[in-house]
Amino acid sequence: MTNHPKIYDILGDLSGLSVLYDEPVSRHASLRVGGRADALVVTENEDQLIEVVRRLKKNKIAFMPVGNLTNLIVRDGGYRGAILWMRGLESVRLLPDEPAGDHIEAQAGASLSRMVSLAAARDLTGIEFCTGIPGSVGGALWMNAGAYGSEIKDVVSTVTVIDGGGERKTLRRDDIPFCYRASNLPADVIILKAVFHLVLGEGAAIRGRMAEIMAWRHEKHPLQYPSAGSVFKNPPGLPAGKLIEDLGLKGMRRGDAQVSARHANFIVNKGRATAQDVIELIELIQEKAGKERGITLETEVVIVGENP
């Protein structure tokens, strides 16, 4: 049963708040699948987000923060509660007065590409590995995004969050138990922003490395179709894509969802795929990896919501 009338009563008086009620997530998710969310909420600043969270908690309405909707699958039955879309928190700025080097502060809803572009414009190095990753700063921190031997934990200095009690709190890098593809922050924490410590480099080399990474992504990744990026975490010592290819699943389809013929750790939407099509492929891959190789494949994508 939908909660959107109740959410309207709870949030309707907040000035400047943007809310889409009974909204199909498929309109916004990078994979172009997903059922309806009771409410898709966009706040215009951190204080407003804190107030939204306070009201939802007080009224026992489920909610979850999301970044660019790049690694989220909402089941076709939809999400009962409020999805807090962080795109209203998108500031990225240089903090030149910080000691011991140059720092960039980025809010959770800012795209990684904006942060990478600002760093390159100021000849700052350390974040080039994020070139071409389509997610948000908050999502990258939550999952400790990484590529080419580097991870977001390597460059983060502090992270400001809303803690489980609804209070704003700043954590130092060493306060966060990062590991492979996880920050291990408590589930009730919401990331607001972070400060990243970069160092001065050689501009031509930085931009050359970025161009090299983008060329590699265009060559290897199926960017011509909607996707959610890498579906699975790499098991120890083995790229997930190589494992899936070796299992003979490259090109496998369920409806319009397909294991990419270009990179087997991507599932692409060839037209009118449903969330269920994608989930069935994920489960098929996990089952075959377990039966034939004894490997448990964990997803990078987050799956939430109700079955139809």
Helical residue percent band: 25-40%
| Sheet with the most strands, sense and barrel status | 6 strands, antiparallel
* C-alpha geometry: globular
Secondary structure class reads alpha+beta
Q: Per DSSP, what share of the residues sits in E-state strands of 2 or more residues?
A: 25-35%
Kindly, what is the distance between the CA atoms of the first and last residues, rounded to a whole number of angstroms?
Answer: 12 Å
Would you kindly provide a written description of the structure presented here, covering whatever features stand out?
- This protein has 308 residues and is an alpha+beta fold.
- The protein has three domains: 4-88, Uridine Diphospho-n-acetylenolpyruvylglucosamine Reductase, domain 2 (2-Layer Sandwich), CATH 3.30.43; 92-220, Uridine Diphospho-n-acetylenolpyruvylglucosamine Reductase, domain 3; 240-302, Alpha-Beta Complex (Uridine Diphospho-n-acetylenolpyruvylglucosamine Reductase, domain 1), CATH 3.90.78.10.
- The protein is built from seven helices and 17 strands.
- It has helices spanning 4-11, 46-58, 112-121, 137-142, 203-220, 240-246, 275-293; strands at 18-24, 36-42, 63-66, 72-74, 79-85, 92-95, 102-107, 124-125, 146-147, 150-151, 156-162, 168-172, 190-200, 253-254, 257-259, 267-269, 302-304.
- The strands form five sheets. Strands 6, 7, 8, 11, 12 and 13 form a six-stranded antiparallel beta sheet that branches.
- It is globular, with a radius of gyration of 20 Å.
